[in-house]
Amino acid sequence: MRVLFVTSEVHPLIKTGGLADVSGALPPALEKLGLSVKVLLPGYPAVMQKIARSEIGTPIDIPGPLGTTSARLLPVRYGALDLLVLDAPDLFTRPGGPYNAPGGQDWPDNQFRFGALCHAAAWLSLSDTPLGWRPDILHGHDWQAGLAVAYCHLWGQHGRPRTVFTVHNLAYQGQFAAENVPHLRLPWEAYRHDGLEFWGGMSFLKAGLWYADQLTTVSPTYAREIQTPELGCGLDGLLSMRSSNLAGILNGIDDTEWNPGIDPFMPATFSDSKMAGKATVKRALQVASALTPDPQTPLFCVVSRLTHQKGLDLLADCLPDLVGRGAQFVLVGTGDPALEHRYRMLAAAYPGRISAQLKYDEGFSHLVIGGSDAIIVPSRFEPCGLTQMYGLRYGTLPVVRRTGGLADTVTDATPAAIENGSATGFTFDHADAAGLSWALSRALDLWKHPKLWKQVMRSAMTHDNSWDKAALDYQALYEGLLAKPL
Q1: How far is CA 8 from the centre of its chain?
Q2: 462 within 8 A of 404, measured Cβ to Cβ
Q3: CA angle, 373 then 377 then 379, to 5°
Q4: Rounded Cα–Cα distance for residues 481 and 475 (Å)
Q5: How far is residue 29's CA from residue 444's CA, in Å, rounded to a whole number?
Q6: Domain 2-252+468-482 matches domain 276-461 at the CATH topology level
Q7: End-to-end alpha carbon distance in the chain
Q8: What is the largest CA-CA distance in the chain?
Q9: 197 Cα distance to chain centroid
Q10: 10, 87, 112, 188: most buried by Cβ count inside 10 Å?
Q11: Could you tell me if 55 and 11 are in contact, meaning their C-beta atoms sit under 8 angstroms apart?
């Protein structure tokens, strides 16, 4: 079975969030099951720089590329990934991030940048290309790949692959003016309520949701939540209508990269059966974060983008009480300038107790998650979440709001769950400071009972969050699609 992944970011080449982790880890997991998976992604400067050290196959020119005068595909084997990099300098060779200019604003031609990515995917899927490989399944990820699904449906009258569209975060929808429809080589007949139209404009995300043969999202709970007005982002009606074609498949993590027994970013290693090394990592983290070294002090952490979605304004309200009760806290992340300023001020007000590392650093994130005692994920909504799974793997107990994938991966440390060995963290229901404060208090109370804390740590560390089950679920989904007539 041949599968084409269409994605805007892939770890370790380019990353802004969990989409990159999924795009980097799921294809190798599928290949272990015998599938042939190629990953199509844009040739951003960071990507081009990294693949330059790899063996690049013969470039393949794309006829009539969208949004630029010339574009080509570069076949690259990069570690465990079989890549097709879209080399289109007019569209992607520029400063800033994958989606934003250096000042933070969206690139004004994002519809053509990611339209070109989708056009390339459709060309690979519907033509006999020099690659000599056509997918049986086109699997698009998030709004940036939505038009790939639409193109296959609208242009594939003489045969097309089955299409799967995965929503990683419904809040990001790729909305553009309706005038772009013909410039993106889409027929005006598709610009209607049962098609591309969305609130007077057009939406790449809606295109994927409407035209894909199968929809998935990244956790079972989130699949249910997005069919409600509260979390449906205006698309709950469409998602409810397509509920028979919507599946929630829980993300996994790369349990080789995130493995406390071999992690090169930490000064010591440990496991569920040999935990002594975690104390060494904790001290190293306290020193690196300018926190007072003390093994008896419970150390909480956050590794996250600083956004309203992540509920970090709620946490800021709780921190004075948390450190007042004897805890320490370290944050790693960037985002909303107002939130950055607030955490910077909290760190200044509580030296040695609160540390705000306002940066993104993959290696330091490993040290933080490995050395902390608990990781806080107070999201207002969370399609899946990965940091809580990293926390589980490292015995860093998650404190999470019971939503989306957080609800599917963390078992609350109730007395009954502790007794039967299923407890792995602490959960709360309401997206407010009171609910979060209650969960943090429960964590502090359990910390006073070291034997019980270590028991929950072991349960967390032995919880299987690898990609193995998800890969099997996707394989079954693909096979089910191929068994049905178009």
Answers
A1: 12
A2: no
A3: 170
A4: 10
A5: 38
A6: yes
A7: 17
A8: 68
A9: 27
A10: 10
A11: no
Report whether 318 contacts 437 (CB < 8 A): yes
Beta bridge partners, 162, equal: 137
397-401: strand order across its sheet: 354-357, 328-332, 299-303, 374-377, 397-401, 426-428
Consecutive H or E run containing 338: helix 337-349
pLDDT of residue 360: 83
Looking at residues 223-228, what average pLDDT do you find?
Answer: 98
Distance of CA 38 to the CA centre of its chain: 19
Only one residue has tokens 């005006």, namely 188
The architecture CATH gives domain 276-461: 3-Layer(aba) Sandwich (3.40)
Q: Does the pLDDT at position 364 exceed 80?
A: yes
pLDDT-derived band at 40 (thresholds 50, 70, 90) equals: very high
Q: Are 97 and 107 in contact (CB under 8 A)?
A: no
Name 105's Cβ contacts closer than 8 Å, sequence gap at least 6: none
Residue with tokens 């009972």: 449
Angstrom distance (rounded) from CA 87 to CA 120: 11
Q: What is the pLDDT of residue 486?
A: 82
In the 3-class helix/strand/coil scheme, how is 226-295 assigned residue by residue? CCCCCCCCCCHHHHHHCHHHEEECCCCECCCCCCCCCCCCCCCCCCCCCCHHHHHHHHHHHHHCCECCCC
Answer yes or no: are the C-beta atoms of 230 and 443 closer than 8 Å. no
- Annotated domain spans of the chain: 2-252+468-482, 276-461
Residue 121 neighbours by CB distance under 10 Å: 28
Which residues are 299's β-sheet partners? 328
